[in-house]
Amino acid sequence: MDFIFNGQATGDVADRLLQCNGDIGVLRPFIGDDGRSYITNTVNGVERVVPLIGNATATLRHEEWKIFDDIVVKVAKPRLKAVSDIRSRGLTYGIPNGMSKTVLSTETQSDIGPASVSMDGIRENANDRPVYELSNLPLPIIHKDFSFSLRQLLTSRNGGSPLDTTMAELSARRVAEEAEKMLIGNSTTADQYNYGGGIIYGYTDFPNRITRTITAPTAVGWTGATFLADVMAMKQDSQEAYHYGPWVLYVASAWDQYLDDDYKAASDKTIRSRVKEIEGLQDIITLDYLTGFDIILVQMTSDVVREVVGMDIMTVQWDTIGGLMKNFKIMAILVPQLRADQNDNTGIVHGSV
Fold first, then answer.
1. Which domain holds residue 39?
2. Does a structural domain hold residue 38?
3. Scanning 235, 254, 258, 296, which has the fewest C-beta atoms within 10 Å of its C-beta?
4. 277-326 tens-digit pLDDT
5. Domain count, the chain
6. What's phi and psi for 308, nearest 5 deg?
7. The domain that contains 258 carries what CATH number?
8. What are phi and psi of 168, to 5 degrees?
């Protein structure tokens, strides 16, 4: 077992990480064209290729690493709809060398009182100031392991057949699924993950979210207008909590067959297209892991939600059994940070039947 405790490393993997200040690139060595071992080292956010110094040698060639990385990215992207959406809008907070940090400390700020109105400006106004409160967000690692023997690697090289990437695909899919479920709030392994005095919440279990009961599409008399009215009411809930958009509406996959139907008889637009016409609503996105007939309206600003990126999905490698077994771990530090002010106001509205 490898671990780092009180600045002391135990085990080959932990020792290499400690020597490189937690830079995960040390666990991604590759064989260069000259036959020497190299790693990609990150210094002040800039990546550079440097020779690997130490007793450990690289196992995979650069092209073999590329095979794994390409398949990991290809498989992970379709599974990260909610995560990719907020990241594409710039709602991220990057943590350089995320392996060396276990929590993210942030502050919430209270508001101040209103301004006074007078004719001469002499009347004294309340001399107040914002109150700050410190909170921690845990930064756990999402990871999944796979391995193959040295003989499998040699057979692939000598026979000209490519490495079997099935386990890499399955592992990458599981890591991406966990990151997505963590943001939605229905992860079974990381549900309300608690560490360092902080808790990870998602859209559907965030204590400060606004909740509203909506009508199921299977209810008697339900129409497109019913759904429109529910979404409009959720928008009003957000505005009453001082969050005025823009918004994205996330819906469970069970809604698709209804939202793609005509808004009304002989209509030239679907329910989905009609709802998109709501002022301030940027998009409607179906999430695979949102359950039942749940819908979530989220204001797309960094004071409401952002994805903390300590490490993007990547593959690392180490040897065991004298190098006869090649072990791989697909890992990521992707943690949602849902936010509310000190008055518990937020721009997340959760609708459920």
1. 7-58
2. yes
3. 254
4. 999 999 999 999 999 999 999 999 999 999 999 888 888 878 888 778 88
5. 2
6. -85, 120
7. 3.30.2320.10
8. -65, -40
